[in-house]
Amino acid sequence: MERIDPTRDDHDLVLAAAVALRDRLDGLTFPLATERAGEAQRTAAEVGRQLDDYVVPRLRDMDAPVLAVVGGSTGAGKSTLVNSLVGAEVTRPGVLRPTTRSPVLVHHPSAARWFDDDRVLGSLARVRGGEPTEGAHQLQLVASEGVPPQLALLDAPDIDSVVDANRELAQQLLDAADLWVFVTTAARYADAVPWDLLRSASRRGVGIGLVLDRVPPGATEEVRSHLASMLADEGLGGAPLFTLEEQVLDATGWLPTAGVAPLRAWLDGLAEDREQRAALVRQSLRGAVDDVAARTEAVAGAVDDQHRAGDELAEVATRAFDRARDQLRDDVRDGTVMRGEVLARWQDLVGTGELLRELQSRIGRWRDRIAASLTGRPRNVERFQGAVETGIEALVRERVTEANEQVVLRWRATAAGRALLDAGVDADDLRRPSADLGEQVARLVRDWQGGLLDLLREEGAGKRATAKVLSYGLNGAALVLMVAVFAQTGGLTGAEVAIAGGSTAAGSTLLEALLGDQAVRRLAERARADLDRRTADLLAAEAGRFTAIVDRSRPDRATAAELRSLAGDLRRGLRT
């Protein structure tokens, strides 16, 4: 993000902040289903349009013509009023409602350069000298000598149109105005929608002029007095109010010249008075910038919501898999792994004397391998190692599946988590462990078993016992060490203790004789810690599937601070 140099003058400070803010809002999304996400998404889009349509263009060209947007309710006579002020048919009134579908901007021929490009209302395509495309967001440009060079009139769609797109466009145009010429009728001046917009205009500081149209003859004083009282109550008592009685249009379909003369004189005077015009532009611009800053801070708050929601979801996943790691650590220590098939295969290995042959004789080891290859039967060593691999894999899969189910259940209880789970293909995969989990666990156990040999080599390094260990056979020693890791008595029955503990006595005694009893205990602890580390990495990767989709689904963590910083730069520029 570009940092704003505080030594610049105030105008440049605001302009630089506005441009940087527009860049920062571009592409900002709120994917997590938080309470303020939808509103913040709309607000960010509106602020971006306001910066594009008015704030940045006006900051860059303070001397550009005043843009007066003629807005109001359906059938208030806006188009007729614009034609009457200009003295030419520049916009087409109609009987059908809504009438004005595409806005019409009328400017002096010498001011064409201000409006031909996308300096203001850049999101609207320009149309000049032809009919706009039906349904498209286009701005029809009309040059006329009937408006002063320093003023442009824009005939906007109805603010209460039955067509949603027309209402949204009307609001967008009003946000781009230096001046609102607000048209209402004697029958509808108390309607709620116009007053909501007038209050918004008052808060924003935009210049306002009101036209009370179609007043029944003889009722002007009464209606005007009541409307003026309402305006005063809303803090708009200083806004000029023009009244037009109900009257027959002339042959051209315009209002009589005398009827619109006061309004035209006011607009002409504003256009011709440089100081008054500059004061109006500064007032409207300051209000718009202040509004942008306030709404930017609201957007920053919604970004914070995204991160809080994301952090909560990520914490759910992290905690669930941390619990799985604790449970697996207990499973290893309490003898769970040594039950069932693993215990039976270990008993076979010990009972047949194959373990001692593994430990005591390389010749015996080769003899057993040759015999197994001739008979086609796997050796008890391979059966035991396979049982260990299967047992650990089953435990890990069980714990991972439990953790996965807990996370999905907790996520489903929140709107943000539910939306992520239902978002698409990636989210569908989160409902179950990784497809290759079995392969990962099998590789983990094999690598861990291979690591036991390295531990034995390291422990014997530099000792006279090294040669003895190597001569007696590392594979056999590793088998004994493997059982020492799992054969804790905390969760085994009496019979299981006898098998897992008693049947290893010969092997353990031999290892202790070779390396020392403290070394054997130390090796078992190191082997256990190595297995814990490997399973922890695997569990972290499974948890990472959840946290990764959270991280992909929320704004950058620095976004909120950047938005607040830019809002602060805008406010600092406004204070002087």
Q: How would you explain this protein's 3D organization?
A:
The chain is α/β, with parallel strands linked by helices and 576 residues long. It has two domains: 63-272, Rossmann fold; 308-554, no CATH class. The chain is 62% helix and 8% strand. α10 packs across α17 and α12 crosses α13 (415-421). It is rod-shaped, with a radius of gyration of 40 Å. It starts with 9 loop residues before the first helix and ends with a helix. Mean pLDDT is 79; it is low at 1-8, 94-100, 361-378 and 489-507.
Largest sheet: 8 strands, mixed
* Overall strand count: 8
Give the uncertain stretches in residue-range form. 1-8, 94-100, 361-378, 489-507
Mean pLDDT: 79
Structural Rg: 40 Å
- Which range does the strand content fall in? 5-15%
- Widest β-sheet, arrangement of strands: 3-4-2-5-1-6-7-8
Distance between the termini: 25 Å
Q: Which percent range fits the helix content?
A: 55-70%
Structural domains: how many: 2
Judged by helices, strands and strand pairing, the structural class is alpha/beta
Number of helices in the DSSP assignment: 21
Element-level helix/strand string:
HHEHEEEEHEHEHEHHHHHHHHHHHHHHH
Global morphology: rod-shaped
